[in-house]
Amino acid sequence: MPKITVALDGYSSCGKSTTAKLVARQLHYAYIDTGAMYRAVTLYFCQNHISHTNPREVQKALDEIHISFRRHPESGSNDTFLNGLNVEDEIRKMYVSDRVSEVSTVAEVRHAMVAQQQRMGKSKGIVMDGRDIGTVVFPQAELKIFMTSDVMVRAHRRQEELLAKGELVGIEEVIENIRKRDYIDTNRTESPLRQAEDAILIDNTLMTVDEQVDLVVRLADERIGQAIRRREEA
Fold it and tell me: Which residues have a Cβ under 8 Å from the Cβ of 194 and sit 6 or more positions away?
């Protein structure tokens, strides 16, 4: 059975990671959360007082950062490890969210993360979500999805996610953070968030998670079928 690459891009808090994880599980593919990688870098910058505007500090920090994913024995999810420490919960906190888009604009950071992501997915059979997967990391991906959702819906989802981790944040603060991240993500010079020309747009404002997953899996199955036919014709 041929394997494909599923690239899933979109705005913050629109459910990309949740959908991507479940799609990967159904396809028996590896799942790579690129947003977690940028959050891990941001966490390191915060903890070590690294200025994202100082190229020398940034490069030195990147040389000292090692990010990996390990399957959680109980939940079955992939947890993010930074230099050997599980930081899955810490990188989801609001203070990291407040800085992650700024750190992600740094060219050196993006180049380092994109190179690592391309190494992770060189054998295909992956579902990867982020901001520039279909445009920069894997422009030749067989299936590209671009997800969006109403800002208020995204804010409530994000607030619930924070609350589940014991962090109480007002809805206005969450909305402000989302709008700030949207602006930075779409206006940065390096790999801005945009929909690839051949990406399929999914507005999940009124969709359940199951509906999103079913749709992406169905699209993936179509692409796999096309790959099989091409192999047979070759």
Answer: 135, 186
The answer to whether 109 touches 41, Cβ cutoff 8 Å, is yes
User: Please, are residues 50 and 58 in contact by the beta-carbon 8 Å criterion?
Assistant: yes
Task: Find where tokens 């740094």 sit.
Answer: 106
Give the span between the Cα atoms of 38 and 150, in whole angstroms. Answer: 24
DSSP designation for 106: -
The DSSP annotation for 143-199 comes to: EEEEEE--HHHHHHHHHHHHHHTT----HHHHHHHHHHHHHHHHH-SSS-----TTP
pLDDT for res 21: 92
Question: Are the C-beta atoms of 184 and 100 separated by less than 8 Å?
Answer: no
Residue 109 forms beta bridges with which residues? none
Q: Kindly report the pTM of this predicted structure.
A: 0.87
Strands of the sheet with 143-148, listed across from one edge: 30-33, 126-130, 5-10, 143-148, 200-203
**Amino acid of residue 52:** H
- H helices of 48-170, in order, are 55-64, 94-104, 107-120, 151-164
Tell me what pLDDT residue 38 has: 96
Is pLDDT of 76 > 70?
A: no
CATH T-level assignment (fold) for domain 5-226: Rossmann fold (3.40.50)
Each domain of the chain, given as residue ranges in start order, spans 5-226
Backbone phi, psi, residue 74, to 5°: -95, -50
Distances (CA, A) of 203 to 9, 84, 127: 12, 37, 19
**β-strand 85-86 against 78-82: which pairing, if any?**
antiparallel
